[in-house]
Amino acid sequence: MKKHLKIINDPVYGFIRIPSSLILELIEHPYFQRLRYIKQLGMTHLVYPGALHTRFHHAIGAMHLMQLAIETLRNKGQLINEEEEEGALIAILLHDIGHGPFSHALEHTIVSNISHETLSQWFMNKLNEQFAQQLTIAIAIFNHQYPKKFLSQLISGQLDLDRLDYLNRDSFFTGVAEGVVGFDRIIAMLDVKNNQLVIEEKGIYSVEKFLIARRLMYWQVYFHKTVIAAEQLLIKILKRAKYLALEGEKLFATPSLSYFLHQEIAYSDFLSNTNNLTHFSHLDDHDIFTAIKVWAEHTDPILSHLCHNLIYRHLYHIEIKNEPFSKEEIKNWEQKTLFKFMCAKENISYFTFTDTIKNNAYNIGDTKISILSKNNNILDITQASDNTNLEALAKTVQKYFLCYDKSLIKN
Fold first, then answer.
1. In Å, what is the CA distance from 242 to each residue of 247, 291, 343?
2. Is residue 56 part of a domain?
3. How far apart are CA 228 and CA 402, in angstroms?
4. What is the CATH number of the domain that holds 209?
5. Does the N terminus or the C terminus of the chain have fewer Cβ atoms within 10 A?
6. Of 65, 216, 80, 75, nearest to 155 (Cα)?
7. Could you list the residue range(s) of the whole structural domain that residue 196 is in?
8. Closest C-alpha among 16, 23, 27 to residue 1
9. Is the same domain home to 29 and 159?
10. Residues 116-138: tens digit of each pLDDT
């Protein structure tokens, strides 16, 4: 691989080397530079003020961990040529390039039923055209279609480099120490057996710590009740704006945001019209929040109320339980909503609603974490570990939440 003298000073890992001119060109491409303006943790900074790091930070960090992983595997005798190395680095670098503003909020509102993984694949295909098919190996690795399966598992799996970076990085910037994992120890224990990624047995305790840290980070950060309330408020704002735009209401918006507000764009539309991907590549957090600041003065009372609440951090009051809320509880808050806001019944859900959250640190049915024992046998982490808590971590925990406008509490 052609070396390129370029380094980035990262607060989590220190100096990160950009290993090739092609990777540097991809980093400098507008598609990737857009990630500088998309926060990694969406609305989480309203709870943890330091959580202002971006998807750009995360992508560069994950690429750095891939460099370390490939070095480890080569030292243990695994054959990874320069083209495969560059392909794996590009695949992990671009794995989140399809994320929209404020992370997942747009997947539920402006763009319907299109995941960021799918958008990432489309962006990579577009870049492959622009860079004379030099991303072909990277795309095969990203799509789990490359013969060396372990390279794909480093990007997307139960113990991938994406998760290793975001747990450490999100822990660093939120200040939540429970998320710190021994990424260097885990990477040092990586190996390949039967074309599958494995962890040497002596690294089992670091993997246990990783799984526990992931569970704790979901409850303390990603599913923090105030974070949920803030993200739900943003989703409701975008839902209302989209409804008004489709009804013919004039709304302030940047050209690309307006493009998505004023029409329904589904999965098949992206494939048939290249303008959709172009407009999506122009969207970042600034488009959304600038619009929200203007919409706060809109004549529609629902939109203006929701926007004011987000701007001034008057978030939903939220209750979280292990069991579903009773029909009586929900009806009580809906009646209060009707009385307080004098809104139509179909608009109650902007002020009062319920939903669920799910958390499982380890999915046994997914790509498993394989432990390579000293006698050369491969065991699932739950079988190899003497920690009975791991079985609990493999179970999906579902909780129920009820959100309602804080002003209702005063009545």
1. 9, 12, 18
2. yes
3. 11
4. 1.10.3210.10
5. C
6. 65
7. 7-94+135-221+365-394
8. 23
9. yes
10. 888 999 999 999 999 999 999 99
